[in-house]
Every structure is written in C-alpha cells, then in structure tokens.
Amino acid sequence: MQPPVVRQVAPNKYELIMGERRFRAAKAAGLKTIPVIIRQTSDNELLREALIENIHRSQLNALEEAAAYSQLLTDFNCTHEELATKLGRSRPLISNTIRLMNLPVSVQQKVASGALSAGHARALLGLTDAHAIETLANQIVKEGLSVRATEQAIGASPTKKKTKKLTTVTSSIVEFNEIAERIGDALDTRVTIQGSVKKGTIVIEFAGAEDLKRLTQKLEG
C-alpha cells in the first residue's frame, strides 16, 4: 500500500495531499510516526492530480468537498468545467457544492456533523436571508423534513405545478427555461427542455457512469 502523500508548507510542517484514510487509520492505531511521500510544491500538476484522487477516495462530507473544490480552483487556476471533467461529475454539482460555503456558519456545522444532508443544504441556498436559512435548517433537523419537503417549503420544488397559462411562444420559452433551471438545481446537473406547451422533451445531462448512477438514485428516491 502506498504511503500518504504530503507537501512541505513551512519548516517542519507538512500538508496532507493524499492518503486521508491511511493517515486516520494510523492515528487510530496509536502510531506516532508513519512513512510518507514528500512532493515538491513546484509540481503543481502532480499535486492537483493527488488532490483530485484524494477527493475520489476519501469519505468527505459536502463541506469538505466544497473546500477541496475551492482549493483546486484557487491554487491551480482550474475551471469548474475542467474540474468536473477530471472528477467525472457534472459542472452544476461542482458549482452548487462550492456554494455551500456561502451558508451561515451554524448551518455549515449541521452539514459537517451530518445533521443536514448535502441535498438539504443545496435546497437552502434557494433562500437569501441568513435568518430564514437558519430557521428552516433548525426545522429540518427538528421535524426530520425530507429534501423534497424542504424544496416545497422554499418554493423550489421541481415538481410544483405552474398555474400561469402560457399564451405566447416567448412566454413558453421563458417558462421552459425557468423550469429547466429549477430541475437542474434540484438534480445538480444541466437540464434543457425542448418543444411546445403540448409536447416536448426533457434532456438531463450526466458526466460519466457514477454521475448517471447518482441521478438515477435521486430520481427514484
């Protein structure tokens, strides 16, 4: 088994790049020292690949993933599209996960502890008032609200029926775009709607087999 990978950030100080599980296992076993592989900080591409591998292999919560994505974007000048391609995930999923860092600290703590799921957290981003977000977050925990119930509570349910009658082609296009955006936000991927008010097609994009599996589970759940 390959030792954890680290990089030196200061004299006698190192940052773990890859091997989070191995590091935790060694710590739990009471080991004081473990062998590691030290990478030079100038090798940015290698460090980026190592961090991406760490995201794949580690059991990160949504906030830890958001921090890792943000680090990749900032440190290595990586775009959302590039990161999505590297990880085999959709760009909206990357973008929406990073947005979780904009939630109030108290709500972030609930996500980190597992009291709130990533789906709940992303739904809460539909609110703009910090107090309203915290209030609904507390309600979710107290009452055990599902993600769908949370979306309905903030008026963001992708299945909520529209009562407004579409009378023109222009209004139909606008309506389709709005619905597609809401469904896309709920599924964390890009969604497009084509057709007319009588008949049409919904296209849901996915990035690889794992992302397709995620979408299938989300739709079936």
TrEMBL record:
Residues 59-155 form the ParB/Spo0J HTH domain. One of its GO terms (biological process) is positive regulation of sporulation resulting in formation of a cellular spore. It holds the Pfam family ParB_N. Residues 1-55 form the ParB-like N-terminal domain. One of its GO terms (cellular component) is chromosome. The keyword Oxidoreductase does not apply. Gene3D superfamilies: 1.10.10.2830, 3.90.1530.30. This is Unannotated protein. Belongs to the ParB family. Keywords: Chromosome partition. GO terms for molecular function: DNA binding.
